[in-house]
Write a structure and sequence with these properties.
Blueprint: H1 2-36, H2 42-51, H3 60-63, H4 66-86, H5 93-105, H6 115-129, H7 137-142, H8 147-156, H9 172-200, H10 207-226, H11 240-244, H12 250-271, H13 279-284, H14 292-296, H15 298-322, H16 330-338, H17 349-373, H18 384-393, H19 397-403, H20 405-422, H21 433-452
Helix pairs in contact: 1-4, 2-4, 4-5, 5-16, 6-9, 8-9, 9-10, 10-21, 12-15, 16-18, 17-19, 17-20, 18-20, 18-21, 19-20, 20-21
Length: 481
């Protein structure tokens, strides 16, 4: 009985959290309109986001505006939250992870128009297989990582030479290609998730990143390389308002995220009996195949979200202050949300800081090596690709939990070394590039660790086996009517 009560309470908190985050996004859109004085252009800015192709990393602050990007994220978040609440059955940490990934990419590449074919397509598979919609809703959410393909097929693929940013012209051919792509996605997206987990043995929490990266690699090369179509490029648009803020909304971002994460801390503390009791146990968890909500309860997960969010926000501010690169752009806002993805199922401050450390250490090595050979290190830890990559590299946190901090530093450095190359494999049209990079890093690193480190440590050996985490739950059959 206590397990049922715990599950019900966790579900209510998860649903409430998604509603609260969606509301925060809408409020930020209103505040952003005042902050940037773009009330009058908000409808046009949002429309431009909706009809503009968005390969990685298309900055929606530039294509649209600060409030338009937040409004886009609020709309998408509200839809995800509504599905979680209205579909019969309890919400779980998988769908919460999917929710965070959806709103994260609403700042660069995913929008309220291009998400629908990807999000709805897997429901066809679930219907045919008789699987429970609620328990597999996360698969539909994860499939939205292919949203840039939809925008390309609708607006640019059939008339690349004539495309103009913001016009949004489509054709019967574009619509037909989009429908065909959605049908293929319906049966591929759920099928490729379970098998790829065996490759990285559960050490990459972004299981969908590796699975969908491989599929995106196939689709991109078929549609463009094989067919001889010019590869997509990031749309160019001159945004005067964004330029006046030096293409960085640092003050707005810090105020927004500080309030958001402090509220998560306060809510978790209150729901946990006005205490932080049990947090130590969560912070000692290896994060390997672990469900924090089931083991410790969602109140402690809320506290972890707040602490982890503050840690990542601090990291972003530090690297932006100390190095030359990107600022608080749309993608930077997005990856701060993305960093929260697995705070209820693996990530916490203790098992991610070594991965953070791997990025500046590799940059230091690259600088010294370039000085030695007379070359030039052309990147810093605040270069946009590396800001994005570090958020997803933390999906390798189970490596830290089971193999120690040096292995985590190596994992971070390996992701930093790979992150600028993997996007070219899928043309930037698969949004989980960071998870794809982390998956490849795991494929390289895990065999080495297993060979040289015979007994991985496990501070909390009695972890819950979640072999189906981030995959399709085929045991959850839809109840007959």
């Amino acid at each position: 009985m206590s397990t049922e009560v715990s599950t019900e309470r966790n579900s209510r908190i998860i649903d409430g959290l998604t509603v609260a985050f969606s509301a925060a996004l809408f409020l930020a859109a209103v505040a952003g309109a005042f902050y940037t004085k773009t009330w009058g252009t908000l409808p046009q800015d949002l429309r431009r986001i909706l009809v503009t192709p968005g390969p990685l990393v298309t900055d929606y602050f530039n294509i649209g505006s600060l409030p338009a990007a937040f409004l886009n994220a609020g709309l998408c978040g509200a839809v995800m939250s509504a599905f979680m609440i209205l579909l019969p059955g309890p919400s779980h940490v998988n769908t919460l992870a999917g929710f965070f990934l959806v709103i994260a990419h609403c700042f660069y590449g995913l929008n309220f128009l291009n998400m629908w074919p990807c999000f709805l397509a897997p429901f066809l598979y679930l219907k045919i297989k008789g699987l429970d919609y609620n328990q597999n809703l996360h698969v539909c959410m994860f499939a939205t990582c292919f949203s840039p393909f939809v925008s390309e097929l609708l607006f640019r693929y059939c008339n690349a030479d004539a495309y103009v940013v913001g016009e949004g012209r489509t054709s019967a051919r574009g619509i037909l290609l989009t429908v065909c792509f959605a049908l293929v996605l319906a049966f591929v997206a759920p099928a490729v998730l379970p098998g790829v987990k065996a490759w990285h043995k559960g050490y990459n929490l972004y299981n969908g990143g590796l699975a969908y990266g491989m599929f995106g690699f196939l689709v991109f090369n078929f549609l463009y390389r094989t067919m001889g179509v010019v590869a997509p490029s990031i749309p160019v648009y001159a945004n005067g308002v964004y330029n006046r803020f030096d293409r960085s909304y640092r003050l707005f971002g810090n105020v927004f995220f500080l309030l958001l994460f402090l509220l998560c801390l306060q809510a978790g503390w209150y729901l946990n009996g006005k205490s932080f009791r049990g947090l130590r146990h969560l912070l000692l968890d290896t994060g390997y195949q672990s469900n924090f909500a089931s083991k410790y309860g969602m109140p402690l997960c809320l506290i972890n979200i707040g602490l982890y969010g503050l840690l990542f926000l601090g990291y972003i501010n530090l690297v932006i202050s100390l190095t030359i690169g990107a600022g608080f752009t749309g993608p930077t806002f997005g990856v701060i949300f993305a960093a929260l993805t697995f705070t209820s199922m693996g990530q916490h401050p203790r098992n991610v800081w070594p991965i953070f450390l791997g990025f500046p250490l590799l940059n230091l090595f690259a600088t010294l090596f370039n000085n030695f050979i007379g070359g030039h290190a052309m990147w810093t830890v605040s270069t946009q690709a590396y800001i994005n990559s570090v958020a997803f590299a933390t999906g390798l946190c189970p490596i830290v939990g089971r193999y120690g901090e040096p292995a985590g530093v190596a994992a971070g450095a390996l992701c930093a070394a790979l992150c600028t190359a993997t996007g070219a494999l899928h043309g930037g049209l698969m949004l989980y590039n960071g998870g794809f990079t982390a998956g490849i890093a795991a494929l390289i690193l895990i065999p080495l660790l297993e060979h040289y480190v015979k007994t991985p440590r496990d501070a909390m050996d009695q972890h819950i086996d979640l072999s189906d985490m981030m995959t399709l739950d085929e045991n959850a059959k839809r109840p007959s009517k």
